[in-house]
Amino acid sequence: xxVEADGGSRGNPxxxxxxxVVLDADTRAVLAERAEGIGVATNNVAEYQGLIAGLEAAxxxxxxxxxxxxxxxxxxEQMMGRWQVKHPAMKPLATRARELARxxxxxxxxxxxxxxxxxxxxxxNEAMDRQAGVEPKAAPVTAPPSWTGAQGEPTRLLLLRHxxxxxxxxxxxxxxxxxxxxxxxxxxAEAAAARVAKQVDAATPIIASPLTRTLRxxxxxxxATGGEVTTHQGLIETDFGAWxxxxxxxxxxxxxxxHSSWLSDTSIxxxxxxxxxxxxxxxxxxxxxxxxxxGGTTIVVVSHVTPIKSLLRMGLDVGPSLLFxxxxxxxxxxxxxxxxxxxxxxxxVNDTSHLEN
Length: 357
What we know:
This protein has helices at residues 43-60, 73-79, 91-102, 118-131, 166-169, 183-197, 212-225, 248-254, 256-264, 276-294, 305-316, 322-325; strands at residues 2-9, 14-23, 30-41, 65-70, 106-111, 155-161, 206-208, 229-231, 298-303, 333-338, 344-351. By secondary structure, the protein is an alpha/beta fold.
C-alpha cells in the first residue's frame, strides 16, 4: 500500500492540521483517508501527526508492505535515520512513528515534490478549515485529459543504456568498475545519439551516471544535439562488491548460498556491495531530485541496466521481480513519463531499432 501524508500550520506555530491517504499500490484506489485539526502546532509536528495517522490506517487495513510518500524532507530523512530528531515536541512523535513502521514487513520512505502530494495536502487544509469553522469548498469537477486520468504536464525521461564494454562482452558483473566503451560501444552510442537527436534539442538536459561508459555515451548525445551533460551520482550502477568483474558462474561458485539468496531476495546485498532495494531507493531519490529541478520537460538520462530498470519499475508501479524479468540491451532506449498527480506511463522499453542499420 501507499501512504501519502502531509501537515500544515497557518502561522508556524499556528492553527494546524494533518491529512493522510492510503492508496492501493497497483490501482491507486483510495482505501482510507484521515484528517484532523490539532490546535496550535508547527508544520513539522503536523506532518508527523499525518504520518502517524497514515501508518495507523494502513495497519488497520492489514498492510504488510508500505511505501510512504511525503513532501517533508525533514520527516523523511529522520525516519530513514539520516537526520537526528532534536526538537523536544517531535521526539515522542518520531518514536511513535518508528514503532508503527517496525510493525510492517517492509517499509520505504520517499520524498516527493509538493505538487505530487496534493491529496494529503488538500485533506490537511480541509481539516484546518473545519477547525476554524470554515466549510471547505467543493473541488470543481473537470474531465481528465486522457483515458488514463493522469493530469498535468509530465516529466518525460528518455532512458539510454550505455554502449558495449569489454566487461559486457564477457558478461561480467560490471558495477562501479570504471571501464571504457569498446569501438563497438562507441558506435552504438553514436547510433543511439542520432536517434535521440530526432526527438530533443540543445535545450534538453542530458543527465548521466559519472562512470566513463555512461559519460562517453552521454557525450555522443550532446555532440548530436548540441546539449550539455551533467552527472548525478544517484544514477550509478549497482555496487557488486566482491563480485565485481566475475561472471555469473564465478560468483555462484565463490558464494553459492549468498548468490542464490541474492537472486531471490532484493534486500540482500552483494558481499561488500549494495542490495537491489538500496539501489531502488537511491534511484528513486535521484528521480525525485531530477523532477524537482526539471519537472514538466523532457530529460535524457544515460545510465546502467539496474537504475533504468528501477525507473521503469517506478513507472509501472510494480514489485522487484521486474528486475529479473525485464531485459535491457546495450544502447537501448526506453521512455517513462511521471505526472505531477502521481500517475505515470511507460511508453517505450528496450528499443534498439537504431542499431539495426
